[in-house]
Amino acid sequence: MLNRVILIGRLTRDPELRYTPSGVAVTQFTIAVDRPFTSQGGEREADFIPVVTWRQLAETCANYLRKGRLTAVEGRIQVRNYENNEGKRVYVTEVIADNVRFLESSREGGSGNGGGAPREEAPYSGGGNRSTGNNSGGYSRGNQDPFSDDGKPIDISDDDLPF
Amino acid sequence: MLNRVILIGRLTRDPELRYTPSGVAVTQFTIAVDRPFTSQGGEREADFIPVVTWRQLAETCANYLRKGRLTAVEGRIQVRNYENNEGKRVYVTEVIADNVRFLESSREGGSGNGGGAPREEAPYSGGGNRSTGNNSGGYSRGNQDPFSDDGKPIDISDDDLPF
Amino acid sequence: MLNRVILIGRLTRDPELRYTPSGVAVTQFTIAVDRPFTSQGGEREADFIPVVTWRQLAETCANYLRKGRLTAVEGRIQVRNYENNEGKRVYVTEVIADNVRFLESSREGGSGNGGGAPREEAPYSGGGNRSTGNNSGGYSRGNQDPFSDDGKPIDISDDDLPF
Amino acid sequence: MLNRVILIGRLTRDPELRYTPSGVAVTQFTIAVDRPFTSQGGEREADFIPVVTWRQLAETCANYLRKGRLTAVEGRIQVRNYENNEGKRVYVTEVIADNVRFLESSREGGSGNGGGAPREEAPYSGGGNRSTGNNSGGYSRGNQDPFSDDGKPIDISDDDLPF
DNA sequence: TTTT
DNA sequence: TTTT
User: Could you tell me which residue, B42 or A51, shows the higher pLDDT?
Assistant: First the structure.
């Protein structure tokens, strides 16, 4: 009935821009948010939270965000689930963002990632997302996960868009 | 660096109260939060979001919350991970709540679950949590999951407490 | 750069619906939000926070909200200022809401205000708003306050709309 | 019943640290938060939102925040009121912060305010707050306003502390 | 495994 | 001017 999340943290990698078959942009990235306390061993800990953006916001994020950049994200928690190739139901929790603020310009900060001007075309960043196995699924219930296991966009229609 | 979540929804079941070996109370429940739009098929959808509370708040939740009750939850997103018994890393996302508001008193609303006065002793609710297999783990990195696979509290020290 | 507010409380009066000259609906109400602690004298205290909604949401609020109803409000803080008739600058802080949830249906709760079905036409609720003096102003800087001192809508154009 | 605010913006001045008679630290500053749209004239607009912090957080803010610094603030809206010297009731809305994040270190950004290392002793910054007249009041109802009209801390007890 |  |  009400579902609001606000996060401030740093990108763990460059964002990944894809397109649905009908041409809608969708970008995924993970932000590391430091916890407000240290573990019993005295180490700083962080939560690594997956974020998804759609449409215009997806393209802006792909153009301006880079690994290590401090970023504010506003959105809602979404929990989707799919059956994996072993017939087991897998739950995936993501933040569907509707507002992203770039708290560091390309000039400053960051994690030594050269960086500089925004890239005009977000190049394909290759495989390596969190899921495993050769299945895909994940959309049996109208949810949004643009990422198949081989790193190619999977089949989603515009009707899957969250707003 | 900043991690804030606010949810309003309904409990999908009665909450489960457990205690850590050192006697700290911890309560888990899931709230169903209706999405602000319907799916392409016109059906209402919801996200089912797991919530964890600790200490005094855990006991208050166990005493006053019941299945179906409208509830506001404030907290932070926590992502923990553990290796399951097949050697695969499993990610679990929960909201660690520090503020819970009961938006329906025991008198009104609810889902016809008898209910009424708060129970004085939260009875043990037994098995059936989300994890599978006979392992346990989940705490290799100082994270908080009080629930083992056989429904018994697992070994956590007070140092695991989030605040 | 980011400005987000979430409140849960009760209406102190029925909401007031007005229209701008160009016909845009705008509704104002105040919600009382209990503080999480008591004063030194042991009394419960509350903050009384003015809320403004626009367009479709304004009409829905006017139709379904009533004095005493428990309500969740999501929006942003807006601070506008104007020069009053004594030449003094007055600051007004309001929450401009973009999401309002009715946590009590007309059936239950409420403050014994008869109530029941939503009114089809929100009747004119007359004077008595917060400002004083016979001036009006308040819009010298493109801000939104639809309420003049004599209880009549003042001159705002569609361009004043916040979204 | 629930009252949560999250803001990201820049300080309009250096923060002002004061102490209550019993020695509790309290710091006030204003942050400018750009609106998500431009006015009809195409100008960027901002809301100027007063923030109050207490105790340890007050001292940290006084030591590390400076004019122009990008800052995240988490807290609750508080509306207090007092009778001014003309016998008129004045309403003051502030954000009582319980979490402040410094999004720019002393090295980078800022508004050319020399700056650098945190000051060890927050010097008295003198008069010039928003209130006017020679009265004071403002605390008849157990509210927290550490600022009297002549810029000196006024009489508040520890009991006025919000948490 | 899901709530109204 | 304030709600339960």
Answer: A51
